[in-house]
Specification:
The chain is built from 8 helices and 7 strands; from the N terminus they run αββαααβααβαβαββ. By secondary structure, it is an alpha/beta fold. The chain has a single domain, classed as Rossmann fold. The chain is elongated, with a radius of gyration of 42 Å. InterPro entries: Acid_phosphat_B-like, HAD_sf. Residues 1-24 are annotated as: Disordered.
């Protein structure tokens, strides 16, 4: 080969090496440590770093939300426990006031607030519903015969005297709760009517008892019919001789008279202790729940 040919070959080889080096620099990165990474691999690496960062931030946010939620629930438990304690405390006092006929002045003022919460928060309605369900379930398991009767204290339905209503509303207005008291009365009216209609439809003879005098018999009958109560077996109200009698003794006297006639009292239903204590109580007694304010 001529000297010119060797010179051209050397120039061509140098150009080829130069071209390969330039191409390699364009498709890769050189790191200080001598580690080479392609552009595709570097893109994946950077994307992985971003993904890990997003995941860490998401976990941090989730942990923060969970911590706040736990703190809120713990705070709520503390707030709920105190009214629950007050409610139990007032229920015990209310029960013993009713049993012993203690004057209303012995009631602590906190019990008025608890009574309103009991109605407004729906617990009174739930207690009424559970009690009525239990009574209906009991009577559905029994077989009737010709001497069985059910006694119902009907004074929760019969309207009170205007003077008493005004006194009750005036007292409750001190706490801004007259609407709440009326709501409780209406609730009990509805549940007693439902229970009455259920027992009547099942064929149970119903005897209604009232503490009111016989002089109000006609107006009481009209009120009961207008309120949805019909076809009861009898409505018993106080005679003139019974007016001076303690209400517990009055109910005991009426029950004893029924039993002497050969009637069997299967159950007595009332929300007041005077109708559920004494003698000749019969097979079962059922107490409908009362808001604490009834004892004020």
């Amino acid at each position: 080969m001529s000297a010119y040919g060797h010179q051209m070959e050397q120039q061509y080889s140098a150009h080829s090496l130069s071209s390969r080096g330039s191409g390699r620099r364009q498709s890769s990165y050189v790191m200080d440590s001598g580690f080479y990474m392609s552009s595709f691999a570097s893109t994946i690496f950077i994307g992985a770093l971003v993904t890990v960062g997003v995941i860490l931030i998401t976990l941090l946010i989730a942990l923060t939300v969970m911590l706040q939620s736990c703190q809120s629930r713990s705070h709520g438990v503390i707030e709920i426990e105190k009214p629950s304690y007050d409610y139990n405390y007032c229920q015990i006092i209310s029960l013993h006031v009713e049993l012993n006929k203690v004057e209303a002045d012995h009631f602590p003022s906190i019990c008025r607030v608890v009574a309103l919460q009991y109605i407004k928060e729906g617990q009174y309605a739930r207690d009424l519903n559970s009690t009525v369900w239990m009574i209906q379930n009991y009577f559905s398991t029994l077989k009737r015969d010709g001497v069985d009767v059910v006694l119902m204290d009907i004074d929760d339905v019969l309207s009170s005297s205007p003077q008493y209503i005004k006194l009750l509303v005036d007292r409750d207005d001190q706490y801004g709760s007259s609407d709440c008291v009326e709501e409780a009365k209406q609730l009990k009216h509805v549940y007693i009517l439902r229970l009455y209609m259920k027992l009547h439809a099942s064929g149970w003879p119903l005897i209604l008892l009232s503490r009111k005098p016989e002089t109000q018999l006609n107006s009481s009958i009209e009120y009961l019919i207008s309120a949805g109560f019909r076809a009861w077996s009898s409505l018993i109200m106080r005679s003139e001789d019974d007016l001076q009698m303690d209400s517990c003794d009055y109910f005991s006297k009426q029950r004893a008279a029924m039993q002497r006639k050969g009637l069997r009292i299967i159950g007595t239903i009332s929300s007041h202790m005077d109708a559920l204590t004494g003698t000749s109580l019969g097979e079962r007694i059922f107490k409908l729940p009362n808001p604490v304010y009834y004892s004020f």
